[in-house]
């Protein structure tokens, strides 16, 4: 993939920090996916190796878990 | 400050992921500080609110702790 994917679950505390990161990278270079709202995207996130949100999956496939919002297991519930 | 500051301690496991993030933001927009090598920069990092490394301090002053490499307390030793 050529764009990064930013997975989050709407964590209100982290919104400012997350938005900062997206702005730094450039919002046109990041796809933002809210797996709290769109649970059908959770298996895809897991396949990339996302263990908690917020997380950024880079074009190289590296997963950066940022701070610790919520375990992906908790988002499933 | 106008640039982001990326604090790390040389964690070899995370180097690839960290480098990815710096590349995404653009290396010219990030100052990289290795507080493992340059311990005199630790108080500055703490003042920004850095609790563990790697961490990115954004120009807005938000601290993004990425994955969990090492506690800043462990880097002091």
TrEMBL record, chains A, B:
This is Thioredoxin family protein. It comes from the Bacteria. InterPro entries: Thioredoxin-like_sf (IPR036249). SUPFAM superfamilies: Thioredoxin-like.
